[in-house]
Amino acid sequence: MNGFAHLLTSALVALVQLALVAVGGPLLLGVMRKVRSRLEGRVGAPIHQPLLDLRKLFTKQRMRPRESSWLFGVGPLVLVATVVCVSAISPLATTRPPLGQSTDFFAVIFALLLGSVVLALAALDTGTAFAGMGSSRSMTIGALCEPALLVAILAMAIPARTSNLPALVRAGLGHPALIASPSRVLALASFLVVILAESGRLPVDNPSTHLELTMIHEAMVLEYSGPDLGLIILGESMRLAFLLGLLVNLLVPWGVANRPGALFFVIGLAALAAKVLVTGVAIATFEVFTAKMRLFRLPELLAGGFVLALLGAVTAVVAR
Amino acid sequence: MNHVSVLISVLAGLTATVAGGALPIRSRVGVAVLLTWVSCSAALVAAVSVLRSGHAIVMSTSKILPLTGISIVLTRLGAVFVLAIVMVALASTLYWIGYASHGLSTRSASSALPLFVTSMILVPFAGGVATFLVLWELMALTSLVLVLTDQSRREAARSAAQWYAVMTHAGAAAILLALVLLSAHAGGQTFAQIELHARHLSGALRGTIFVLALLGFASKAGAVPLHVWLPKAHAEAPGPASALMSGAMVNLGIYGIILVGNVLLGGGPVWWWLLVSALGVLSALYGALYAATTSDLKRLLAYSTADNMGLVLIALGASGMFAASGSRTTAAIAMVAALLLMFNHSLFKGALFLAAGAVQMVTGTRDLDRLGGLLKRMPVTGVVFLIGALSVAALPPLNGFVGEWLLLQSLLHALPSTNTAVVITVAVAVAALALTGGLTVAAFVKAMGIGFLGRPRSEEASNALEVPATMQLGAGLLALSCLALGLVPMLILPSLELGARSAQHIGVSSPVHGWISLHLFGLRGVLAPSLLAGGLFVALMATVLARRVSHRRSRSWPALAPVEPWGSGRRTQTVRMQYTSTSFAEPLQRVFDDVIRPARDLNVSPAAESHYYVERIAYRTSSDDVIERVIYQPLIVAVRRWGRLARKLQNGSVHRYLAYGLLALVIVLVVLA
């Protein structure tokens, strides 16, 4: 009976976390757009507009380019599935998520990478110039992001002596000095650069562009419409929310539930939402004052991220 | 019992060789394949029993090879390599049945292929220097014959074979020198004798031996800068042979390094392993970069082999360094990671090369820019390639990811070491590993996306049909094992741990354990590949369900309407507007311009009426191997110049030759006096 109750609680925790990310992702997008509009002197769409858009998209007809194969339809599914899977088992609202024992940071990142890779393949499946261009550019950025990302994880994992994600968050709660340590600050700065680049925000990609030649991510998904496009928008916004959630929990873990109990979990949910909201608003504000970088200047930005991470790793080794 | 299976393996392999050369064309390949299977199965039985019992198989006879005799010893380390080779060999020979009509049913090919397989399987059985070198040479020569079999590309094959012959013999010379030095100073030519005495040799001598052996074996494994033959030979070899070379033969280079470095010399100082890691970092980065930018499907795979062997060398070097600086657990984990990376590579690269061979057989080209749309036309081959590509990109839930994770964990937990060199190497290794990973992903998205997806870029690609069932089965077998090992790595890990332990003697019995979730011994690191895969699967099903429910509720749309894709207002889009592999790789090529230094040629011819109108633009870019251009071409030029000088000595005049003889005699007399 106890085992069953435990299983039930775990499933509930997973589902609630998942629901928060699934609803929070599009809402975060809405908030960021609203902040941007306001700062630019416009009224902007209501915050829940992305949710309305999704509802509309799901009622539309599904279409596919004439020469595409089954992979075209699978791309959005895998993208959403990877985010769903990792947001259920990651320490977002609680440091004891289901299967948390085996929630490895590297595994989470590689699972998310699976989603982007399958989407990039699906883009090439359309057989058009724009999608190919988007796919190529997004893979280039991805290839240059990965060094920064892995070394950043290493820099965080060395002081904690593990790459287990819940353990990393707990280590921050237990030893606040760890968070203020130069290694983690540098690593998280690098992580932020990677998040911006991977989720196609400024200064890497302009999420609201309408010119095909300047697009990266939007070009890649140009052929999608209806429910498939809905899934992609949902998946991308969930991924942004998820990654920001990880970032804030590694940076300011306070509020996250560190012991069993429904109350702590609810507080954890609220804290997570508040922290991600603040970060999202900050990013949106930053985007107003930033121009998109030229594609071939991006390696410099990402190399900068990599150097930050490497410095973090080196300080981590020196400090111990 | 074990002795019998070794004998069966040898005899069946030799009979297959004879049968392949002697039988008429109709039965030749079938009989040779059956006998090769017998040989493989017998070797598999021997390997499994060695792994199980831990008792090495020891046999020797002085009757066959004069002076030294043949000595056969199979340890657990060797058994691991036999397992990997047998896996690839079973699949590729099965594939060979369907491929044979494509130029691989000649007498020379059908006797060279079984002999190649047998000699590869037997290399880890070698228990003495002479036996080892004979088998090693046999393996090199038979694979050389196989590189030359593709008659349709004679010129390219001949040039590739020439490179291969020179490089493999230069490597063999280095190995010969190392092993002869070793046996001369250790007072015996069997490995057991050497192992006993090699510890007492001087440090300088041990270092020399190790470096020589490393150079020789690393060139077989395709480590940069000794890799130049690999993209040529592996690309020109016909389907099953290229899978065997890239999936199995390169492993033996790794085997050689472990054999000399860990077993015979019993480990060494940090600088040895620093050298190994440095070679690994260089190969991984260079291989991945060229894989990401080349547009020849099989060359891409070959460069990726150099990249993957680089990862194995990084793990091997890390393991040696950790052992030398006293952190035993991480050393053991890194060694297991090296063997796992090697084993995984055999499976996925075997599958990828078999799939690429099928594509080449059907379309007659390896140029990605002339392929496309093959997933719909060759569904099984396409899925095999997809699984292989995701696996080589180290994505869960496939086997490549587990190996990479293990390597990352060993590097992560090794950092408390006080040795500065180790710390710096580890940081550089992780950075290199990460960049390599990113480039590999890009390379294989390109290979899969341009080669198999989208619209066909040529007549041949649009008329492609799926290959015969045996070929699908052979390639599919390897792809399925990638999946199986990705879900349950414990299917192979215990064997690899036994192999690693017999190589290292550092007394950590099972550094990685746990069937569902992998636990690391004494460290906080857990990975649950099957649970992760299960989670992904459940999430995928839930998403499918959600899409279906929300969609059906709305209105009854037709299932999935095929439409013309968006072309910026153009009515129709031609195939030439699709992205090609060259354009896909262009941003990366531009980022790494300083490394690759591609040759670009842009010709704009204006129209006669006005030079503002462009009549024709010709753009050509070629990125040949920069190491080949910078290091090897000058070397070739120098050798050729020496050759020309030497030719002056030899002008055909008998008088001059008599004078040479007299001169030689005088010199000999002077020296003796």
Q: Largest sheet of chain B, if any?
A: 3 strands, antiparallel
N-to-C terminal Cα separation of chain B, in Å?
Answer: 61 Å
Low-confidence stretches of chain A: none
Helices and strands of chain A: which structural class? mainly alpha
Which chains share the greatest interface? A-B, 86 and 88 residues
User: Globular, elongated, flat, extended or rod-shaped: what is the shape of chain B?
Assistant: globular
Domains of chain A (count): 1
How much helix, percentage-wise, in residues of chain A?
Answer: over 70%
SSE succession of chain A: HHEHHHHHHHHHH
Q: Rough shape of chain A?
A: globular
Assembly state of the chains shown: heterodimer
Q: What is the helix tally of chain B?
A: 25
- State the helicity of chain B in percent bands: over 70%
Main sheet of chain B: which strands, in order across? 3-4-5
Radius of gyration of chain B: 27 Å
Compute the CA-based radius of gyration of chain A. 19 Å
Secondary structure: number of strands of chain B: 8
User: Spans of chain B with pLDDT under 50 lasting ≥5 residues?
Assistant: none
Distance N to C terminus of chain A: 45 Å
Count the DSSP helices of chain A: 12
Q: Sheet bearing the most strands of chain A, described?
A: none
What does the secondary structure layout of this molecule look like, with pairings?
The complex is a heterodimer of chains A (320) and B (673).
Chain A: H1 2-39, H2 49-58, E1 63-65, H3 71-89, H4 105-125, H5 129-160, H6 165-174, H7 176-180, H8 182-198, H9 217-220, H10 226-251, H11 262-288, H12 298-319
Chain B: H1 2-22, H2 25-53, E1 57-61, E2 70-74, H3 76-99, H4 107-122, H5 129-147, H6 154-186, H7 191-197, H8 203-221, H9 229-236, H10 239-264, H11 270-293, H12 297-324, H13 328-363, H14 374-377, H15 379-392, H16 399-414, H17 420-452, H18 459-462, H19 469-487, H20 493-504, E3 512-513, E4 518-520, E5 526-527, H21 529-554, E6 561-563, H22 581-591, H23 593-596, E7 599-606, E8 614-622, H24 626-649, H25 654-672
Antiparallel strand pairs in B: 1-2, 3-4, 4-5, 7-8
